[in-house]
Design a protein that fits this description.
It is a single chain. This protein has 44 residues and is mainly alpha-helical. It has one helix at residues 2-33. The protein is rod-shaped.
């Protein structure tokens, strides 16, 4: 049971990190397209 639970935590962590980098890339792309779009990144 413990190993299954540990694997679940690891999978959740990977998903969160992936989501974090995805949002960061999205923010960088928004900044490149127009420099005044800094507030839009607050949605994420």
């Amino acid at each position: 049971m413990k190993s299954i639970f540990g694997q679940q935590i690891q999978a959740d962590g990977v998903a969160q990190i992936t989501l974090f980098f995805f949002c960061e890339n999205l923010r960088e792309n928004q900044k490149d397209s127009n420099s005044g779009a800094d507030h839009q990144s607050d949605i994420f």
